[in-house]
Amino acid sequence: AQSVAQPEDQVNVAEGNPLTVKCTYSVSGNPYLFWYVQYPNRGLQFLLKYITGDNLVKGSYGFEAEFNKSQTSFHLKKPSAVVSDSALYFCAVRDGLTGGGNKLTFGTGTQLKVEL
Amino acid sequence: ETGVTQSPTHLIKTRGQQVTLRCSSQSGHNTVSWYQQALGQGPQFIFQYYREEENGRGNFPPRFSGLQFPNYSSELNVNALELDDSALYLCASSPGTSGTGELFFGEGSRLTVL
Predict the structure, then answer these.
(1) What is the dihedral of CA B53, B56, B60, B64, to 10 degrees?
(2) Closest residue on chain B to A48 (Cα)
(3) Could you tell me if B76 and B34 are in contact, meaning their C-beta atoms sit under 8 angstroms apart?
(4) B85 three-class SS
(5) Which of A56, A73, A110, B1 has the most CB atoms within 10 Å of its CB?
(6) What is the pLDDT of residues B53-78, one digit of tens each?
(7) Do the beta carbons of residue B68 and residue B32 sit within 8 Å?
(8) Nearest Cβ partner of B97 from A34, A102, A108?
(9) Does the CB of A74 have a partner CB in chain B at under 8 Å?
């Protein structure tokens, strides 16, 4: 069974400072990893993904994430946070070994708050 | 290019009733997935439809069922509603079932069961 852990319910950061939102995962085969963002009363928006290749992936709005196979982690980062980054962030995983199409397993989410 | 649209946006039902939620997929997308997001939780996979057939199911009872139509739109039906079915129901579409691409989510249908 696949699982995702987001150990922090909330992350607070000052505008202009770097931010990190943590994610660890567990899958049987090679992982397909994703980050999505959710604004209040809205659906999820895709930020970035890791399927294969370079461990550092870049995505929308200046976000990036680093895949670390030995630590089974996929932390989301941004060099300089802005207030509009404040939202709920979800890490998700799919087992690349087995079937299941678009069955993603999501973490419980991390609320990011960027303060002036 | 229109995005994923869901209806209704909000609805209130009582225990034991039945509900139908609807989803129009993004243009060109032939795969629709449904997720349930309870308050304070991450989305949980209910099932996926590809070419009008269920193609993958999560840990949900049979009273959760669905349909996909030739135009790739989809319905989620829930029978014998329970209080715990109160949640945001998200529909997501994609141009295939490879699992490597991003999912395009609608804004959801918020169901309250009293």
Answers:
(1) -10
(2) B102
(3) yes
(4) helix
(5) A110
(6) 998 899 999 999 999 999 999 999 99
(7) yes
(8) A102
(9) no
Q: What is the pLDDT, as a whole number, of residue A97?
A: 67
Q: Do residues B46 and B62 lie in contact, with contact meaning Cβ atoms separated by under 8 Å?
A: no
Q: Do B42 and A109 make contact, defined as CB atoms within 8 angstroms?
A: yes
What is the token pair recorded at B85?
């079915």
Q: Identify the pLDDT of residue B85.
A: 98
Contact between A51 and B104 using a beta-carbon 8 Å cutoff: no
| Residue whose entry in the numeric block shows the structure tokens 């034991």 | B16
Residue B11 pLDDT exceeds 90 = yes
Peptide bond into B62 cis (omega under 30): no
Return the DSSP state at B25.
P
Smallest Cα distance from A62 to chain B, Å = 18
Torsion of CA B64, B70, B72, B73, to 10 degrees: -60
Q: What mean pLDDT is predicted for residues B34-40?
A: 95
Cβ pairs A/B, distance under 8 A: 72
Burial of A37 (0-12, 13-18, 19+ CB in 10 A): buried
